[in-house]
Specification:
This protein is mainly α and about 525 residues long. It has 23 helices and no strands.
């Protein structure tokens, strides 16, 4: 069952330029400022994902305040969680044009604005716009850069770094639940949301910590990666066409684009130098023209990269394994969210409220989830272990638990299954690593944006679908069974596509030998 990173579409880069001379790696790669990036991402997960896990506290307050149905009120939380992930592909465009730091700072301001405006809500539909849409988009603009920056700064310990940063979700679930409960009790839910909006401004500080790597540092990272895996790369029989089908873009169009951009800026600079003898007003106008030209070049370059990744000839969607990864993401996330939403009601049906009040089952998932992310990250970074195999094993464990949970009606049995759900769902920390292995660091922002967009669709429609099944059958059993079966379909896609991808080059080499 072993599959190396190359077997699932690893981005090799230009091997012809590798190994000619030793390159000294940047000390900030896998060390130095890289750990500040992990800290920044950790705080982002606390403030965004942790707050969304604690929205049940506010949901109770909204039900009492507006007297609307539970289904309608629940859409406020569902919109916020879903939009945070669904906007991923569009946030990839912002990152391509403005960079991770600027995108995260703007997102922090937008998220805080959404919380503050929601404090003045007069009805649930108002919350749809302010909290569901505004705060959700702001959260997405901070969340994606936080994940991408960790991938850029780490090479050897990527899985561990992603695991440590994403444990903020578990810590945030505890901290934000306690904080919102205290604020609602002492000051009321409106003032609580206003205060939470002020706290969310710290996302701008987290964004400011996301210091971008220079193009030289990124090139050094590519060289170090290629050097460390050169021997394994030579063994593979992938042709040039196969590598291009895996989503690796050609460098020639990019070089032509850069040459055109330099020509435009050079002409503006030539005009500015020639006009030094003119008036100061003319020089001021030329400086404005130069600034606008540079901004235009940046926007064009970012949009070209974003467009080519999604719609160009070498689109990410030509990578079959990546497409299978998207299909998996459409079904996977709801299987994790549904237990969080519906376990409290299941506990009441089984008359286990007394034991659950002592130690809630959702808390068991959150606690073990923290350890699962770290431990799976450490295991995946071992040289003899494939990240892809660890990812698949964790998925198999989680889908087994989802299908088993309805069969258990004792607190101890449910607690064991919830612990396994929490640990196996630690594979979330491996998702950026697997995505980077599929498409390369250069296209990580756009590719991971697509993945979390698929997760957002799953989070948006999964819990309401489970509630709809309960309204029909008066049982949650079928909700878990259907979610588990759909999840299994996604895992099967992940298993089939790498085998097809690996088999195609062998068939092609056999045909060439016959010719």
């Amino acid at each position: 069952m072993y599959a190396s990173r190359e077997d699932i579409g690893y981005d090799f880069g230009d091997d012809s330029k590798v190994g000619s001379k030793p390159v000294k790696p940047n000390p900030n790669i896998d060390g130095g400022w890289a750990w500040m990036i992990v800290l920044s991402s950790f705080l982002v997960h606390i403030l965004i994902m942790g707050s969304q896990m604690a929205l049940g506290i506010l949901n109770v307050e909204w039900l009492e305040e507006f007297n609307q149905s539970r289904g309608l009120t629940a859409w406020v939380s569902s919109l916020s969680m879903g939009i945070t992930l669904i906007v991923g592909p569009f946030i990839g465009l912002f990152i391509s044009m403005c960079g991770c730091r600027t995108t995260a700072i703007i997102g922090g301001i937008l998220n805080a604005l959404g919380w503050i405006l929601s404090a003045y809500a007069s009805n649930v539909h108002y919350l749809f716009l302010t909290f569901g849409v505004t705060a959700g988009i702001g959260s997405g603009m901070v969340y994606l850069p936080a994940v991408v920056m960790v991938g850029q700064y780490f090479q050897k310990r990527r899985a561990l770094a992603q695991g440590l940063s994403t444990t903020g979700t578990g810590f945030g679930a505890f901290l934000m639940t306690a904080l919102l409960k205290y604020l609602c009790t002492e000051f009321g839910w409106r003032n609580a949301m206003f205060i939470q909006g002020a706290i969310s401004l710290n996302l701008c500080v987290c964004g400011a910590l996301m210091r971008p790597l220079s193009p030289k540092d990124l090139r050094e990272k590519y060289v170090v990666r290629s050097d460390s895996e050169e021997n394994r790369a030579k063994v593979l029989s992938h042709s040039t066409e196969t590598i291009k089908s895996n989503g690796v873009l050609s460098e020639e169009p990019e070089k032509k684009e850069e040459a055109a951009n330099e020509e435009v800026l050079g002409s503006v600079q030539h005009i500015e130098i020639g006009g030094k003898s003119g008036s100061g007003r003319s020089l001021y106008g030329l400086r404005i023209l130069k600034t606008v030209s540079q901004l235009t070049v940046t926007v064009r370059k970012g949009f070209a990269l974003w467009y080519s990744s999604y719609f160009g000839a070498a689109s990410l969607f030509t990578n079959r394994v990546f497409v299978a990864f998207i299909i998996w993401a459409l079904f996977a996330y709801s299987s994790f969210v549904i237990p969080f939403i519906h376990l409290p009601e299941i506990v009441k049906q089984y008359n286990l409220s007394r034991q659950d009040n002592v130690f809630p089952l959702t808390s068991i998932i959150a606690i073990v989830h923290i350890f699962g992310k770290v431990i799976l990250g450490i295991i995946s970074d071992l040289p003899c272990i494939s990240t892809w195999n660890v990812f698949l094993m964790a998925n198999f464990t989680l889908v087994t638990c989802i299908l088993t949970l309805p069969l258990l009606q004792t607190y101890v049995g449910l607690a064991v299954v919830c612990a396994l759900i929490g640990f196996s769902s630690g594979y979330f920390s491996l998702m950026p690593v697997v995505t980077e292995d599929l498409v390369g660091t250069k296209h990580l922002a756009n590719a991971y944006g697509i993945i979390i967009c698929a997760n957002g669709i799953s989070a948006l429609f999964g819990p309401p679908f489970a509630g709809w099944i309960y309204d029909i059958t008066q049982k949650y059993d079928f909700s878990f069974y259907i979610a588990g079966l759909l999840y299994m379909v996604g895992i099967i896609f992940l298993l089939i596509q790498p085998c097809i991808q690996k088999k195609q080059p062998r068939e092609k080499s056999t045909e060439e030998a016959q010719v």
